[in-house]
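Colleagues,

Please find the record for the four-part complex below.
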Amino acid sequence: MNPLYKYTLKIADDSLIFGQRLSELCGKGPYLEEDIALTNIALDYLGQATNFYKYAAKLEGENKTEDDLAYLRKEKEYLNAQLAEYPNGDYAQIILKVYFYSVYLKFLYENLMQSSDEQLAALAEKSIKEVRYHYTHSSTWLKVFAQGNEESKNRVAEALENVWEYTGGLFDEVEGEADLEKLDLIPSSKKLHQDWKSQIEKDFATFGIEIPTSDFMQKGSRKGIHTEYFGYILCELQYMQRAYPGCTW
Amino acid sequence: MNPLYKYTLKIADDSLIFGQRLSELCGKGPYLEEDIALTNIALDYLGQATNFYKYAAKLEGENKTEDDLAYLRKEKEYLNAQLAEYPNGDYAQIILKVYFYSVYLKFLYENLMQSSDEQLAALAEKSIKEVRYHYTHSSTWLKVFAQGNEESKNRVAEALENVWEYTGGLFDEVEGEADLEKLDLIPSSKKLHQDWKSQIEKDFATFGIEIPTSDFMQKGSRKGIHTEYFGYILCELQYMQRAYPGCTW
Amino acid sequence: MDHDKFLEYVQAENKVEPKDVMPEDYRKLLVRQISQHAHSEIVGMLPEANWISRAPSLRRKMALLAKIQDEAGHGLYLYSASETLNNGENGADRDSTYQAMLEGKAKYSSIFNYAALSWADIGAIGWLVDGAAIMNQVMLMGNSYGPYSRAMVKICKEESFHQRQGYEILMTLCRGTKEQKDMAQDALNRFWWPALMMFGPNDADSPNSKKSMDYRVKRESNDDLRQRFIDVTVSQAEFLGLKMPDENLVWNEERQHYDFGDLPWDEFMEVLKGNGPCNKKRLKTKIDAQKEHSWVKEAAIAFAEKQEELVNA
Amino acid sequence: MDHDKFLEYVQAENKVEPKDVMPEDYRKLLVRQISQHAHSEIVGMLPEANWISRAPSLRRKMALLAKIQDEAGHGLYLYSASETLNNGENGADRDSTYQAMLEGKAKYSSIFNYAALSWADIGAIGWLVDGAAIMNQVMLMGNSYGPYSRAMVKICKEESFHQRQGYEILMTLCRGTKEQKDMAQDALNRFWWPALMMFGPNDADSPNSKKSMDYRVKRESNDDLRQRFIDVTVSQAEFLGLKMPDENLVWNEERQHYDFGDLPWDEFMEVLKGNGPCNKKRLKTKIDAQKEHSWVKEAAIAFAEKQEELVNA
């Protein structure tokens, strides 16, 4: 299997599943303005997913469409990080997830813009502005919650307790990343993780959030191992395509 | 379409969907004993569904299995009452739903035992004991809640407010019931409704629950019109059969 | 204030602006109508949101999300338009009108109390519900209150786009398999009459209309708008190859309009009273969302207060 | 009490009954072990419950529900057995032992902190997890405490049935399509090592075992049980046509046992510490269920009190 295909897929799968999760909130946000903002972020994710799936399909070379890849794989073929599938939870947790993911995507795309693969570089360039906005939005709220009142502080702390152990999976590697790295096609996942950690430390120091001391991280991301939540996401995501095979919509 | 087929299907669909809903509670009940009791009821429902599906498949005569009928129809082909698909809610609502359904099934089966169709009569006979136990279990708890403390009384009242308008759908008819009734194959749904109402009135008087005054009832049961909740039930119920078509499990 | 002069003013097609003097009943009428319109946009997000997670392709999923987002945006414009009418006593602000809706004291369009049961319903909502809304909104572009009229111009553009999108969803289904086409037909069957009832009661049963017309808030009668909608929509259905669920629907050469059957007003009245398929569900969803997130607002206020203290320190 | 006499008594294969005099550390050992066993049954319901709504046929759905129900029943027997050891001070009653588990002070078997990710996992859990449990439970049938020993007899019967059911699920998959067989292989790969670790640390690292053995609570060492489980299971895997995920697994003619690779003890220790795939999820599910339903108990108590008042009036 072409490792660049898998790598592109892992980016697309993250975006799809983050977008799917986030869009559960649509119509049920805390303010109308936030409803719009979060839906916008979900839309950006789905747009990015579509673009990366299209490229992945091209790399695979089996004439598949972006929908085939998004809708018609089995659970273990999805290479997203488990963080994407973790439930929304309360608004503090939603914001925290978007924040963690935005910092990751910011470094990922900034680096991919230098990729020796022109297509990947172009896709990253296309997406970076969106991600910077997501970062601004989520970090602004995170600061508000971290410095708001007792309840919001506790909620941030609890969300962090829930989500932290899933952040490592963002940086887990698909097979063959080392080779891609040597060809300057992709950045080093280890380096991304360091950059990510530094940014989080800096931001958290400003916001007044303590970074968890535990370095335990959940395993299985990028390898098709998921949380128990994931199967239920697929039930809904894929239902129409599974129940009406081969139809055009 | 054979009206007896549709009628048998409506019985089976109720049991399947009630069973599916109730089994969501498994492992999460209020006591271990209740977890066991409610799982038992769910199991009885699924067993009855299986038996009635088998008979329905025979009536249809297209060599289908009970699983084909349970798993491979489209949303609008399911003829269950909307009450079955209504969410569990809290334990008061779960108990109330089981109670309403048990009273219905008790009268239905007692009448079907007299059916001129031997198979239907036999299936009803086979199921009646189970349903009597469900009635005892649910009415006991309903009384406890109705006469317990303020909170439990309020919960019963709220559950009733949610669920009452879906009770009428139990007695909605599939096409051709009038003809089946003339042949003494099935009891009159109107008569069942009266019997049901009398029993509820009697019990509620004992328990001290007020019957809602509104006689508005939701429409669409038995006609393939569902609540918005139903689609999600099918997503999970059918996922494996849809994602792996034609497999044996 | 001279009431006749005001009438003359608006009937000469002049726009009333927020700071202008206006009759109290004009102000009230507008606050009620604009905020009801806003609530409809907000509650109207829910039936469609029911299909986001199950939308059958990436393109459709994104279009649906974007559409719902537009509706939230329309809600915002409209709440703002309503707020321009706040004179300190009539509760035209967003929070109090929204609260009134949650408490069942203010209405939103009854159409959103119907269930979105299939993917085709998403098409039918776009085609018929947005279609009916547009008929109304195009008329409202000419209404006498400036901010409302301008909000309508903005909204109408996006709504037409939504309507085309909905129609295109159905077109795809109607060119698909038999099952897909049946799905489209079912959706039409279920949404046709409710869509027609969006125009409100027959003129004979609509006593409030006259004042609205005089004030140039409303410009056309319910029945006229309904007729125009039917006339436009029948050929669209034909083009899809779908059958209208009205046996009495027939072209009347003399009137140069379609004749059509009686509307199921009993059902309409029931739904209006709260007895529709989803009235409780819609309100509960919005009430639960408000409860669940109430801490967010509190945290934001606490944060803002601390910032202010820092600045003032 | 004469400690040596008690040892002599149990080592002569006599059963201790609830009212018998027994050493405090024997009592404590049993309460800890039996209640931990009970918690395992109760928490063990959850990974399987994750597949009820998605079970792929009616027959499988019912068998799965019935199995989980049996586990709840086992939990009940075991809590009752534990309660017979209550001497008024050691908290052997169901509520306090359960509460200790919810608070993380008492353990349940770590195996239930693994995720049930596919339908094949339901098969693997039955075959391997119940299989390993049976090895242990058959041994425990001979344990010196009467009520525990009798509970084990009951439980073992049902567990063997569950194990056969699990094996049969995998058999069906292995005779099915390539995708189904792969699903079975994946499940075996994920559950094999965790199942082996169910027998506990290697004997060399298991200092508590001696006391258990002396008291005839435990009758065989961890390593012996593990070896027996491996010896039995390898041929079952072969019959399925599945490959054991252990390159070092090989028949040792001299020992008349299979040799096998090192177990991933680091992972075991992590999961034990709380860092497994589902530790938080399992506890949260049970804690949430307790919170959500706390009113039920209160209502039942209020009802019972009223009934009593009526009787006494």
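Residues 3-243 of chain B form a domain with the Ferritin fold (CATH 1.20.1260.10).

Comments are welcome before we finalize the supplementary table.
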